[in-house]
Design goal:
about 350 residues, twelve-stranded mixed β-sheet, 40 strands
C-alpha cells in the first residue's frame, strides 16, 4: 500500500516541509533509505545521513535544525521515535490483516472460532478449541483439544499448543514455540530405571505476553505453569513445569528455569541464566547474564555470578579474582622468605 506525506502527517499530527504529495510504500533506516521509503531521525548521531538519504520522507523532531539543504520531504512531529514506532505498529497490523480459514486447514467441527480469525493451511485445530476474534494462526500450527486462545493473538508458523492450555488476549507466539509439552517428571524404580510421572496440568499464558522462537513452556504436573500478564520471553528459553513468571518480567535468550520456581513481577533476567527448581525470586530483581541461581532472592536485589550473589560484592570480588595469579606468586615469594630466615 502507498501513503502520501499528507496522509501520514494527518495520522501523526505532523507538519510537512517539502512535497506533500511524496509517496512511500515501505519503511527503512535513514542510512539505507531509497526512493519510495519512509524513515526517521531521532538520534543526533545519525543526523549526517539526512543530507544524503534517498528516502522520500523522513520524520524528524520539530526542534531539528538543518545545517544545509535537505532534498527529502521532512515531516516534523513532537517525538520522531514515538511516531515511527506508531507507524511500525500500524504496518505490523496491516501485515497480519488476513481473515478466513484456508482449505488445507483442519478445524474440528466442535471448535468455536471468533470473528475475523485467520487460520492458515496445514494448521490443525482440535476438538472443543476456542479461538477469540481477530486472532491469526499461521501455517503448520497445532492447537490441541480444549485449548483456549484469546482475542488479537498472533500464532506464528510451527507453533504447538497442547491440549487444555490457555492463551490470553493480545499474545504473540513466535515460530517453534511449544506450549504445554510434558514437564520433566520421572521417578526411579526398583529396576534402576525410571517411571514417567504423568503431567496432567496445563499452561496458562495471560494477556499481552510475547514468547520468542523455539522457546518451550512445559505443562504442570498438577495445576498450571503460569506466565503472568505482560511478560516478555526471548528465544530458546526453557520454562519447566509448575513455574510461575510474574507480570512484566523479561527474560533473555538461553535461560532455563527449573520446576516449581516462582519469579516475581518486573524482573529482568539476562541471557544464559540457570535457575534451579523450587526457588522464590522476588519482585524487581535483576539477574546478570550467565549467572547461576541456587537460592532464593529477595525483592529489589541485583545479582551476578555462578553461584550468584550481590552485584556490588561480585564486582569487588572480581577485582581480586583477576589478581589471583599475581597474589599467588607473591605468597610463594613470602613463603620462600620465611623459609630462609
Amino acid at each position: 500500500m502507498e501513503f502520501s506525506a499528507q496522509q501520514i502527517a494527518e495520522l501523526l499530527d505532523g507538519e510537512i516541509e517539502g512535497d506533500a504529495n511524496a509517496v512511500v510504500n515501505r519503511l527503512a533506516k535513514i542510512e539505507e533509505g531509497e526512493p519510495g521509503s519512509l524513515s526517521f531521525l531521532a538520534n543526533p548521531q545519525y543526523a549526517p545521513y539526512i543530507y544524503d538519504t534517498e528516502a522520500s520522507i523522513v520524520i524528524v523532531n520539530k526542534t531539528f535544525e538543518a545545517e544545509k539543504p535537505v532534498k527529502t520531504t521532512l515531516l516534523r512531529v513532537e517525538d520522531a521515535y514515538a511516531c515511527f514506532a506508531k507507524l511500525l505498529d500500524l504496518y505490523n497490523q496491516m501485515r497480519h490483516n488476513k481473515t478466513g480459514i484456508e482449505k488445507q486447514a483442519i478445524v474440528s467441527e466442535s471448535a468455536t472460532i471468533g470473528e475475523n480469525v485467520y487460520i492458515a493451511g496445514t494448521s490443525y485445530i482440535g476438538d472443543n478449541v476456542t479461538i477469540g476474534k481477530n486472532t491469526k494462526i499461521y501455517p503448520g500450527s497445532y492447537v490441541g483439544d480444549n485449548a483456549i486462545i484469546g482475542e488479537n493473538c498472533i500464532i506464528n508458523s510451527g507453533v504447538k499448543i497442547y491440549a487444555d492450555c490457555q492463551i490470553g488476549n493480545s499474545v504473540t507466539l513466535h515460530s517453534g514455540v511449544i506450549v504445554g509439552g510434558d514437564g520433566f517428571g520421572f521417578a526411579p524404580n526398583s529396576e534402576n530405571s525410571y517411571d514417567k510421572v504423568a503431567q496432567i496440568g496445563n499452561v496458562i499464558i495471560e494477556d499481552h505476553v510475547e514468547v520468542g522462537a523455539n522457546t518451550t513452556i512445559d505443562r504442570a504436573t498438577l495445576g498450571s505453569t503460569i506466565i503472568r500478564k505482560g511478560a516478555k520471553i526471548d528465544n530458546l528459553i526453557q520454562i519447566a513445569h509448575n513455574v510461575e513468571i510474574g507480570e512484566n518480567t523479561v527474560i533473555a535468550a538461553q535461560t532455563g528455569v527449573a520446576g516449581s520456581t516462582k519469579i516475581g513481577k518486573n524482573c529482568m533476567i539476562g541471557g544464559q541464566v540457570g535457575i534451579i527448581g523450587h526457588l522464590t525470586i522476588g519482585d524487581n530483581v535483576k539477574i546478570a547474564a550467565q549467572s547461576g541461581i541456587g537460592s532464593n532472592i529477595k525483592d529489589d536485589e541485583i545479582v551476578q555470578g555462578s553461584p550468584a550473589f550481590n552485584l556490588r560484592e561480585y564486582k569487588k570480588s572480581y577485582v581480586y579474582f583477576r589478581k589471583l595469579s599475581k597474589m599467588a606468586d607473591e605468597i610463594d615469594e613470602l613463603k620462600k622468605l620465611i623459609a630462609n630466615k
